[in-house]
Specification:
The complex is a heterodimer of chains A (111) and B (110). With 111 residues, chain A is mainly beta. Chain A has no helices and eleven strands. In chain A, strands 2, 4, 5, 6, 9, 10 and 11 form a seven-stranded mixed sheet that branches. Chain A has a four-stranded antiparallel sheet with strand order 1-3-8-7, with no helix packed on it. The model of chain A has no long low-confidence stretch (mean pLDDT 95). Chain B has 110 residues and is mostly beta strands. Chain B contains no helices and eleven strands. Chain B has strands at residues 4-5, 11-14, 19-25, 32-38, 45-50, 54-58, 61-66, 71-76, 85-92, 98-100, 104-109. In chain B, strands 2, 4, 5, 9, 10 and 11 form a six-stranded mixed sheet that branches. In chain B, strands 1-3-8-7-6 form a five-stranded antiparallel sheet, with no helix packed on it. In chain B, a hairpin with a 6-residue loop joins strand 4 and strand 5. The chains are: A mainly beta (111), B mainly beta (110). At the A-B interface, strand 4, strand 5 and strand 10 of A face strand 5, strand 9 and strand 10 of B.
Chain lengths: 111, 110
């Protein structure tokens, strides 16, 4: 398996623009997680899905953030409108049992 | 609030020494504990996990768990410069959700 695949790897956008991050989990994994990592706050869980259903979105910082998982092999995290403080590395991870495996991340810069 | 605490470091050890990384957690109901390694600019990589009190060994790595003290540690024997990275402790609280500590930066000096 190729592991968790995220795209794009890097994204630079202007404040106010919509940003969409994409994730393909490992085949057969039934949990999918979106994390955000910054120097100040470390690795924070934003939202996670089980069998494509959102279970806990309490980590989503604001209504500007939304996430979907239309099927078992694809998820998106959308930020609209984006702000400079959203600049961070966004990781997607998936798991079958308890061990979560991370994608390579998307480095988002909002200018 | 369920918290996972780690000393941010850096922890500096000479090559060949034992590196000891520590983690405490606040939720007594936590069941599973994980250690991830993250190289600069890379994603977290699972090293090992532990569920039961005591020690679990995997090569040069040993995880130790003491649920009564709410304490998890990772020992790295014969430390190598390639072990220099940030080590993240993670705790499973509910469902499959992991809460991560802030990480400890380890530096192994040749």
């Amino acid at each position: 398996d190729a592991g968790v695949i995220q795209s794009p790897r890097h994204e630079v956008t202007e404040m106010g623009q919509e940003v969409t991050l994409r994730c393909k989990p490992i085949s057969g994994h039934d949990y999918l997680f979106w994390y955000r990592q910054t120097m100040m706050r470390g690795l924070e869980l934003l939202i996670y899905f089980n069998n494509n259903v959102p279970i806990d979105d309490s980590g989503m910082p604001e209504d500007r953030f939304s996430a979907k998982m239309p099927n078992a092999s694809f998820s998106t995290l959308k930020i609209q409108p984006s702000e400079p403080r959203d600049s961070a590395v966004y990781f997607c991870a998936s798991s079958y049992r308890l061990e979560a495996f991370f994608g390579q991340g998307t480095r988002l810069t909002v200018v | 609030q369920k918290e996972v605490e780690q000393n941010s470091g850096p922890l500096s050890v000479p090559e060949g020494a034992i590196a000891s990384l520590n983690c405490t957690y606040s939720d007594r109901g936590s069941q599973s504990f994980f250690w991830y390694r993250q190289y600069s600019g890379k994603s977290p990589e699972l090293i090992m996990f532990i569920y039961s009190n005591g020690d679990k060994e995997d090569g040069r790595f040993t995880a130790q768990l003491n649920k009564a003290s709410q304490y998890v540690s990772l020992l790295i024997r014969d430390s190598q410069p390639s072990d220099s990275a940030t080590y993240l402790c993670a705790v499973n609280n509910a469902g499959n959700m992991l809460t991560f500590g802030g990480g400890t930066r380890l530096m192994v000096k040749p």
